[in-house]
Design goal:
The chain is of the alpha+beta class. The chain is built from five helices and 13 strands. The protein has helices spanning 17-44, 95-104, 166-172, 182-190, 250-253, and strands spanning 52-53, 59-66, 72-77, 80-88, 112-123, 126-131, 138-143, 151-164, 196-201, 204-213, 230-240, 243-248, 257-258. The strands form two sheets. Strands 2-3-4-6-5 form a five-stranded mixed barrel. A five-stranded mixed beta barrel has the order 8-9-10-12-11. Strand 2 and strand 3 (72-77) form a beta hairpin. The longest helix is centred in the first third of the chain and has 28 residues, at 17-44.
Length: 269
């Protein structure tokens, strides 16, 4: 005689034995799968990098403002120039904040030593500053000529790395890299924050290049399709004090090699 199929209604006090067994097997498989996924994810995901964002604290620093290769404050440490690139509040570059001051001085902005108040963020000894208070970030200035900068042409290179927005990458988000961060990085770069090519070796970031085109114009919109992806790109290198710049010819963008992305990046609030 064929056994009758078990039938269970949710409001019954006890489920049939066959239903109980199937439910236990189902939940055991789901639980084991969740544990296995969590283990894989934790092994694949790299930990937070040792970056720093001094959120909520404003710091005053003095130096000479420059606009090339990007808005920055030149300070001195141990007799050497220390460049502190500047960004605006939110997803914007520092240009709009500095324009009124630059116009007032007829463009000779580097002939003045200024005191700026803003928020520091830093990674691997690359310190940046957010002009958190907008135009009120510039609190003092005096006419003092800028001493000679160290600028040198270092030839043509082909580099592999990832184009990042430096505001997130160097401290505001951790880590601010890879495909899941692309939309945020693209908005920052579209807003005027200078793009940076971050070079990775053996899983670690080891070098950085600000990006521009060969006519010294910004390249922000042209490189947006490649932001957050591992790429190989060619250009000419110029060293400006303690920062390097990769100047890219327009035709080089059509020859960019995009590699297969890997790993997952998480953002920190």
């Amino acid at each position: 005689m064929k056994e009758q199929d078990e039938f269970y209604i949710g409001w019954q006090d006890e489920a049939p034995k066959g239903f109980q067994k199937a439910a236990l097997i189902f939940f055991a498989v789901v639980s084991m799968s969740a544990i296995a996924f969590a283990g894989f994810f934790s092994r694949a995901e790299k930990g937070f990098v040792d970056s720093y964002f001094d959120f909520g604290n404003l710091t005053e620093v003095s130096g000479h403002l420059v606009m090339v290769p990007a808005p920055a404050l030149l300070t001195e440490e141990d007799g050497k120039i220390k460049t502190i690139p500047l960004v605006g509040f939110g997803k914007f570059g520092a240009g709009p904040v500095l324009e009124p001051f630059q116009s007032k001085l007829s463009g000779n902005i580097s002939n003045y030593k200024v005191t700026i108040r803003g928020t520091y963020f830093e990674y691997q000894d690359k310190r940046w500053m957010e002009l958190t208070e907008g135009e009120n970030s510039l609190i003092d200035f005096e006419a003092t000529a800028l001493r000679n900068r160290k600028i040198s042409q270092n030839g043509s290179v082909t580099l592999s790395g990832e184009i990042v927005d430096p505001k997130c990458f160097f401290g505001v988000m951790n880590p601010g890299t890879k495909a899941v961060h692309r939309s945020c990085a693209r908005r920052c770069i579209s807003g005027g924050i200078v793009p940076v090519l971050a070079i990775r070796e053996n899983g670690e970031f080891v070098d950085y290049y600000m990006l521009e085109d060969t006519s010294m114009e910004d390249i922000y919109q042209d490189i947006l399709p490649f932001v957050g992806l591992p790429i190989t790109i060619s250009g000419d290198v110029t060293a400006y004090d303690d920062w390097k710049v990769l100047s890219i010819k327009n035709k080089a963008l059509s020859q960019v090699q995009v590699h297969t992305p890997s790993t997952i990046a998480m953002c920190r609030e």
